[in-house]
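User: Study the shape:
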Amino acid sequence: MKKYQILLFCIIPIFSGCFWSSTKVDVMKFQDIHSAKLTIPQICKPIYRSKGTGVAVVNFTNNSAFGMRDSRVSQSLVAITENIVKQISGFHLYSREDIDKIEAEQKFQDSGLVDDSTLVEFGEMIGVRYIITGSLDNVKINNKDYRGLGHLATFAGLHSNNRKTQIAGLLAGVVSYVASGTKVEVTLSVKMLDVQTGKILFSQTISDDVSVGTGSKISNNAMVGVIKSVAIKAMPQIKEPISKMARLQGYLTKIKFDGEEYIGQINLGIIDGLEDGDEFELYDVGENIDPLNGNRSCEVLNTPIKLTISNQIGESYSWGVLEGETSRAKIYQIVKRIK
């Protein structure tokens, strides 16, 4: 038995290197070099304000028979979707104020952001990778009112001389009241578009319902509240699938060289959930101008350079080993974590 224990202790260190490998770097052995700096066009600067993949939530169209002109429905659905996006690490939500500003400058309107090609064009303008939108597809109202029958049964029971009939009449009255009510079923569609490819990455139809008490008619104001309530219940279903698109990102802040290999410092650290061994791709940025309409957008281009995070991880920065065509590495290049 003892010889097996000795053999086990000999084997464990060999395999532990496979499971607990560490990229060790002694930063003090590296020298600062005169590194080139990437020129950041004005239109690309919003990318540097975040540590996540840019995403914008735009208007939800109303395809239902309810409230075709009530903008509060779209506003409510956009706000609920934005709250879900905010909960996902690796996403940077483009603010509603920034969207409104671009819309005003480019003469876009939420009502015009309907077809996929227009959404992609708009996404390029504001510099996001993903656009989330959707629609209110159906609002179904189910009224069930058994109170009249309940009143008759209760009346019959109260005026009967038979004890069992009296009890049955009272029970029927209670059951009819409980069974009565108005239930509103709401059906929504949500989709996410990749601005770079124009493809729909995610599309889902969700539905849920809510009881709103007894009544034959619901006012417009009340219906907006009902739709919002149902959306709050149903929308969390989209969180998991869209979170797969989120990628942590930052940028290169320093480059050092020891005569053999390059290391780079990035503006991400412990507070961003970085771990030893995390891998990043490096990207250049540039301004793109459409020759037909003159629209300007920020172009993000992949480079043949990767960075692997070392054991040198600070609170808000970290060092990693650069690999690939390291001579092309520049300060301010975008780094995106590889999933």
Residues 2-20 have pLDDT under 50 and may be disordered. Residues 307 and 322 are 5 Å apart (CA to CA). Residues 146-178 form one domain. The helical segments are 2-19, 71-86, 96-106, 116-126, 147-158, 163-179, 220-234, 239-243.
